Each structure stands twice: as C-alpha cells, then as structure tokens.
Amino acid sequence: MSAWGNRSNDAATHLPPGAQLLGREWLGFDESGHALIRFQAQPAFTNRHGTIQGGFLAAMLDSATGICALAALSPDQTVITRSLDTRFLKPATVGPITARARVIERTERDMVVQADLVDAEDITVADATARLRRNGRTDHGAGTGHRADGARHGRASRPRRCRGHHCR
Question: Are 112 and 131 a contacting pair, CB within 8 Å?
Fold first, then answer.
C-alpha cells in the first residue's frame, strides 16, 4: 500500500480551501498505476467563451500532481511545486474533470509528475508536467515551506534582495 492509503481518510475530511473550491475528490489508482483525482468545474470557473478558464485547469493540474507525489512518499514528507509546465489542448466545459497523474522521475530531493485532465467524454483537455521539491514535514505548517518559527527551511530569516525584472 502506498503512503497515500494511510493519508486518504485525513485528506478527504481536511481538504484545503483551494481543493474544496475545485471540488477535489481522491478516486484511487487505475490498473496502470495512475493516480485518479476528480474535480468539479463550476459555472463560476467559465470565461467569456463559456469554457473553463485556464487558470482553474492549471490549479487542478497543480493539485493532482501534488497529490500524486504525496501518494509516493512517506507520511513524514511533503512536496512543494517548483514549476508547472501546462498545455491547454481542448476547451473544457462545466462538469466533472478527472486527472490522471503519475510520477515519471524521482530523486532524493525532487520529483517530476505528469498529469492529464480528461472531461466527461474522455477527451484530454489539458496536461502538465510538474517539478516538485521534496521536504520533510515539521509541524502544522507542513507543505508551506515554513518552520513553526516562521522562517523558511534552509534559508536565513533576513530579507532577500529582489532579483525580479521589475526591480532592475
């Protein structure tokens, strides 16, 4: 049994607000080992064309890749998304959307997870590859990248100089 089997009851009863908004539901694994996660695309998620806005699809993919990675880890570990390369393939409509996700690469520090979003007609509407950083859980802030004292893991608590393009 995967580590997720031990976490599934807790995850079902303690969904984060974003997962609640997306209507996330853990379905388990299919016969090929893909993690299956169902989301409910709401009318409030539509754009001016009447299809689901891409940001909501990206949020579903981010959620699905994270849950898939967690399923492969021990309960004392968590992951943080470093990047999410997303492709929007077909318009998505209101209703159930199922993610099929699988770990495609794993090192001591990082994981790469690939996921597809499939609509009720079994059409792939979007896909993504996520690069995630593995972290040990420290407390109730697990998964946030912060320690109980508010400092970031592995970083000094002093302010960092901005290196963004808007500060040059």
Answer: yes
Amino acid at 34: H
Alpha-carbon distance of 122 to 106, in angstroms, equals 29
The arrangement of strands across the sheet holding 110-118 comes to: 25-29, 35-41, 95-106, 110-118, 124-136, 77-88
Residue 54: count other Cβ atoms within 10 Å of its Cβ.
13
- The 8 Å CB, 24+ separation contacts for 152-158 are none
Q: Compute the distance between CA of residue 168 and CA of residue 160 in angstroms, rounded to an integer.
A: 15
Closest CA to 23 of 47, 59, 54: 59
Whole-prediction pTM: 0.77
Residue 31 structure tokens: 């016969």
Cα–Cα distance, 117 to 125 (Å, whole number): 6
- In eight-state DSSP terms, residue 64 is H
Residue by residue, pLDDT tens for the chain (168 residues) are 444 455 544 554 578 999 999 999 999 999 999 999 999 999 999 999 999 999 999 999 999 999 999 999 999 999 999 999 999 999 999 999 999 999 999 999 999 999 999 999 999 999 999 999 999 875 444 344 433 334 344 433 333 443 443 333
* Triad 142, 45, 91: Cα angle to 5°: 110
